[in-house]
Specification:
It is a single chain. The protein is α+β, with helices and mostly antiparallel strands. Among the domains are: 40-113, Nuclear Transport Factor 2, Chain: A; 215-278, Nuclear Transport Factor 2, Chain: A (Roll), CATH 3.10.450.40. The chain is built from seven helices and 13 strands. It has helices at 45-49, 57-65, 128-136, 185-188, 198-203, 205-210, 221-232, and strands at 40-42, 71-80, 83-92, 95-102, 108-112, 143-152, 155-164, 167-174, 180-183, 236-245, 248-257, 260-267, 273-278. The strands form three sheets. The protein has a five-stranded antiparallel beta sheet, covered by helices on one side. A hairpin with a 2-residue loop joins strand 11 and strand 12 (260-267). The radius of gyration is 19 Å and the shape is globular.
Length: 279
């Protein structure tokens, strides 16, 4: 498996337990550890019906149950950082699982609670044993305290609690590719063979994009722009850049709409909207 660590600056860790995942702007992405909830508001039925192309509650439930066939306990429509989200709570085999569903695209953005207790674990390309070995290989001497499988930012990840040199910390590993996405601050400086510091990582991101990651780009800039415009309901394109965020390649698209500026990040491999930030 490929060993690669996305190191994030300390400025992104502001706000208590919420850990920002954007390499360029704190709070721009759903956090790896907790959903950023400071700008969350409940949306009324009337408000929800005003959104262009919004999916129904039934469609949101269907998207959640396509991953985990549980019974529905609760469905709410919320707005998080200007983005409409269906929060779907499913009950499965004695546990509750909270899904965040994009109310426009129908994409599943996150799943909270341990999916290792469900059949979902059998669908992962990287099994839990491989993920553990990858986490342990980052340190000279370390032990595993706990492992959970969740979905963060639209991708399945193993959250592995590691104990090394008397310190506990989490390592996040992509359950599809085996990439190391994040090492928590408390144990990051104990990782071996990482070499580059934060500035080196950020400075080399574009070079890495141009070389080894070229083959992972599956959609064109024009397709990304069309997706972004459809997602926010139109506007004028100011700028489009290809960059790496949270270990994935995204098109960063700046749109002007009725005097407002909105930044939309589109996954360059899947074409999915990763984040929307209204100024």
């Amino acid at each position: 498996m490929k060993k690669w660590v996305a190191i994030f600056s300390s400025a992104l860790l502001a706000g208590g337990a919420a850990v920002g995942a954007s390499a360029s702007e704190a709070g721009k992405f759903v956090s790896y550890e907790n959903t950023v909830a400071t700008n969350t508001e409940t949306v009324t039925e009337k408000d929800g019906n005003q959104a262009k192309g919004q999916i129904t509650k039934e469609e949101a439930v269907k998207a959640a149950q396509a991953i985990l066939d549980g019974s529905v306990k609760e469905v709410e429509l919320d707005r998080e950082d200007g983005k409409l989200i269906y929060e779907v709570e499913l009950y499965f085999n004695g546990n509750d699982y909270d899904f965040d569903i994009d109310a426009i695209t129908g994409d599943v953005l996150s799943i909270d609670d341990d999916l290792l207790k469900t059949p979902v674990k059998n669908q992962m390309k990287v099994n839990v044993g491989e993920a553990k070995r990858e986490a342990l290989s980052l340190f000279d001497k370390a032990g595993i305290k706990d492992v959970e499988l969740e979905m963060k930012n639209g991708r399945f990840v193993y959250e592995i609690e590691v104990k090394v040199a008397g310190e506990d910390g989490d390592v996040y590993i992509d359950a599809t590719t085996g990439e190391v996405l994040y090492i928590e601050d408390d144990i990051r400086n104990k990782a071996i063979s990482q070499g580059a510091n934060e500035d080196d990582k950020e400075g080399s991101s574009l070079e890495s994009t141009k070389k080894s990651d070229h083959d992972s780009i599956k959609i064109t800039k024009e397709q990304a722009v069309e997706t972004a415009l459809n997602h926010v309901g139109g506007g004028t394109i100011d700028e489009v850049e290809l960059d790496r965020e949270d270990g994935i390649l995204v098109y960063e698209i700046e749109i002007e709409q009725d005097g407002q500026e909105v930044d939309v990040d589109v996954d360059a491999a899947t074409g999915e909207v990763v984040s929307v930030d209204w100024d």
